[in-house]
């Protein structure tokens, strides 16, 4: 939903920070975020003042006794003064806003690391040119998402950013509802939480209020069907996220706030550790937990019964434990989870099949996570509390983007078909295993030692190739040789 000009400004901002000495992408995003928020706080203050004047309510500015912390004031300072003032006065002021909430808690350990006045002045100029103040909430959120989309390096422990179209597909399959408690136990930049939030807003917005941009993307989800109390519950008591990385937690907090969630429930925490204990709590879990990480067994939660150092297996049990009875989960896993031969692999698959209804396995092509990684993955969708009778498989072959490092947009995405087929899967009861989608009964899966790889069950239809008879091929070859000899003779002449 961003105009080309705005994208160009964000790219320019990236380039300035890169050439200015901040080459770590996470650090660059964090420092750019701080500047955006310094401006945003004044924009919010002005908006609150305008609203108070309309309702004739008393207004107390957050900048009372701190006028020199207003963006409009200090951003005009000269080069010999601006850097020291931003770092030593404005940043500590911003860091302490929030009155003990998550934002102030995680900002407390943050540092202002823009190294030069010239880089700061360039950053201020570009952010002013973006006209953030004049944009609506949708545009501010989109701007931040585009900024995050430039994050092109994998993090530690196999962390990397989940493509937004894959997140949207998973949200469409799980259908978040108002009243759901929603969790991402390894939230990264909070993409799952934001998409779940926007899905609920859309479901509670009158159709005549919803708008579309030039590319057909819907926006302007006002949630007019929710009263003020319900909206407050959705904003403050419905979405929960955890991440092991402190910088990522700060970025996720700012991302949620950019999307209109003023008091996010985010915490820096390793959810596989003993410090996490929220069993039977959440109605919906959406996640793409780290694949390559490992945890010291002495630190692992006592509630995890599967003995393994593989985080992808431990997270699956953690999600099962965290769900309420009837709660649902959509999670991305590496293919090894589906067919691994270890005792831990088999135990987790047995848990998903016998103590849950494993609704779907969507096999994704290996290029979905490029340029971060070429790992082959699948989406699991399961509901806690009843055994599986049959599993719906879908072999995704096209996610709408090329499967190389460039990931350019292409035609023929399977995602709309996956969503539509999943909705109608009970009506179809498709048993034709030569198609992209089909059912496999639990009895057959048990006979195959709980193997859940689609290749175990899909039938490959081989096309019979008809070749010409040997004597015809021989004649054609001789004719080609004659033409070559003739051509060589003509060249000599």
Short description:
The chain is an alpha/beta fold. It has helices spanning 4-19, 25-55, 71-74, 79-95, 102-107, 117-130, 137-149, 164-174, 191-203, 228-237, 246-258, 311-322, 336-339, 343-354, 415-423, 425-428, 442-447, 470-492; strands at 182-184, 211-212, 218-219, 239-243, 265-268, 282-287, 323-334, 356-364, 377-384, 390-395, 437-441.
Please characterize this protein's 3D structure:
By secondary structure, the chain is of the alpha/beta class. It is 44% helix and 13% strand. It has 18 helices and eleven strands. The strands form two sheets. Strands 5-4-1-6-7-9-8-10-11 form a nine-stranded mixed sheet. A hairpin with a 5-residue loop joins strand 2 and strand 3 (218-219). It folds into two domains: 4-149, Ferritin, CATH 1.20.1260; 156-456, 3-Layer(aba) Sandwich (Rossmann fold), CATH 3.40.50. Residues 153-159 have low confidence and may be disordered. The protein has helices at 4-19, 25-55, 71-74, 79-95, 102-107, 117-130, 137-149, 164-174, 191-203, 228-237, 246-258, 311-322, 336-339, 343-354, 415-423, 425-428, 442-447, 470-492, and strands spanning 182-184, 211-212, 218-219, 239-243, 265-268, 282-287, 323-334, 356-364, 377-384, 390-395, 437-441. It is globular.
